[in-house]
Amino acid sequence: MTTHPHADDGRDCQQVVRHLATVVFPWDTTRALELALFRSFASGRIGGLLHATGEFERRPQKRYDDTDLLVSEIIENGFDSRRGQRAIERMNELHARFRIANEDFLYVLSTFVFEPLRWNERFGWRRMSEKERLAWFRFWREVGERMQILGIPATLADFAAFSSDYEKRNFRPQAASRQVALATREMFASWFPAPLRPLVRRSIHALLDPPLLAALELQPAPRWLQRTVAAALRWRARLLRWLPRRQRPMLRTRIARAAYPRGYDIASLGSAEAPRGVCPVSRHHDGTASAPALAAAERGVDG
Known about the structure:
Blueprint: H1 13-24, H2 26-41, H3 44-53, H4 55-58, H5 60-77, H6 82-95, H7 102-123, H8 130-146, H9 156-170, H10 175-189, H11 197-206, H12 210-216, H13 223-242
Helix pairs in contact: 1-2, 1-8, 2-7, 3-10, 5-6, 7-8, 7-9, 10-11, 11-13
């Protein structure tokens, strides 16, 4: 088993993350960040704001594409690159319009750290090394600092403790959160032929943990389906161990998208303006109101 040659150097976390997300675990990273969306929805404040914007219900695919592109620009090019900086600037512009607590930004940032790590532990064709896990954390910590998120924990353990405590305090059933989650689930199901969509919906539920399902008021998948989905993903991992290793990166910024048939401009990603009825506000000095910050809803992921 080999790891990325730069995995032991925190200064090179941008290279490590790009390698992990585009070469070693491209499919896994995307799926994990999609699950991170649902964790964001389960927070009453975040789910309520996302419902108020109406973006997920009215045009979920564009919302997904815009977020995916902004996050992918940062991962693929690095936060120090010009394109990465422009993507962060664009997310700052988009999120500065809303009143969002700093701890909500912190929580969404934590989902970018922990959902891919959890997925890797369960379904990765190999486990990330501890140095790679730390590089993943350092990368998103640096992104969060550039997005002016305050009080980012200095260690993985402290960040995990914050994330767990946040969920205990903020995961609660709310109609707005459920509606955003259902709209997103339907978007994922729409990627498949109609006869398969009921199974896709239930399979998504099979990947969500009980507290998350309860907060979103979603029915747990049958036990047999939970076991089948987990087994299928583990068998996929075993198969990948025997296949030739990917040599070239899989770049999500190169994927053809119906919303952008002629390509896209980073500055145009996301909503053109704040929706009516949602109060825009700049960041407060105490950090309790909104700031340009990483995805109050990023898929984990329009800006």
